[in-house]
Amino acid sequence: MPPPQITDMQCALQIAGVDCNLYQVLTLVNNDKHAFAYWRDWDHSPPPQHRVSEDVISFLDTYLK
Question: In terms of pTM, does the model score above 0.70?
Answer without folding.
Answer: no
